[in-house]
Amino acid sequence: MIVAIAAMMFVWLFGWGGEYFHWYDPSGKIQLGLFVSFVLGILCGYKTKQ
Fold it and tell me: Which spans are transmembrane here (predicted)?
């Protein structure tokens, strides 16, 4: 359940977060930061699960 909520939040922020929060990101660094934090969160969750 938590994984589904996190995935939905990531997709929403990645796709429509700029329009909602009115950030200006012509080089894509905010989206890159969101993607990296999501991937690192997955890795940390996997490591703690073991």
Answer: 27-46
